[in-house]
Amino acid sequence: MSQHIKSIPSQGYIIYEIDGTGKTKEYSRKDFYKICLVTGKNLIEYADRGIQTYGTTLFFGTPHIPYSWEIVTKEQTGYTILFTEQFLKSGNNSESLLQSPFFKIGGTPIFFLKDEQREYIAGIFRKMIAEQNSDYPFKDELLRNCINLIIHEALKLQPSDSYYTQKNASSRITSLFLELLERQFPVVGKENQLAIKSPHDFALHLSVHVNHLNRAVKEITGKSTSSHISERIVAEAKDLLRHTDRPIADIAYSLGFD
């Protein structure tokens, strides 16, 4: 049974240990980065690629590239840290973290670890959990340094290359496209603007060619990628006009109408 967590705490991060009973924590918000050290059997999929994991895996997740994670066996142990982009940007080393190849489109975010590598990185996670609950005034900077250390350790490793192609790649790509489309809404605040607006933008974030994305979406849904995008934007505009007092110009700007 899953424990539903509505949001990351206001400090912008949460670190927890994965218990061995198969219970997982679910988060309703999706605008966070994730580093996960897990021992167990899982299936991780994104775009038309996926990987089955055995043993210990180090995984880097970003809010900009949707993925699915299926737990195959209940026996799961390890650690996870979730953190927001704002938490990273608050530190002096934020740029190096954000530019890490593991968090960029086209990067390889999955690594298989040997026992000694697992123990070393698990020690960093245990340190972060201890600091999370401490009164140390500079613990946020310390936690950012720990994240950076994990990234640098991963840079020394060989990324997994045991990917397979989904049997129904079109269905998987379409599902991830629709999920990424929904992630854009609601657009909160008049200063914010819709970030991903065109089929080319979505293809870039999904690491597939735009023609491949268009064919897959048309095959599965019967509608073009552009139709899905425009219909969702129009639906959002109607909701904002009905349920908010925001000026029409502000709504138009937020939804990408120049």
From TrEMBL:
The record's annotation in PROSITE patterns points to: HTH_ARAC_FAMILY_2
Q: Which GO terms describe its molecular function?
A: DNA-binding transcription factor activity; sequence-specific DNA binding
Task: Name all HTH araC/xylS-type domain ranges.
Answer: 171-258
**Keyword NAD included in the entry's annotation:** no
Name the InterPro entries on file: HTH_AraC
Query: Which UniProt keyword terms apply here?
Result: DNA-binding
Q: Which domain of life is it from?
A: Bacteria
Q: What is this protein called?
A: AraC family transcriptional regulator
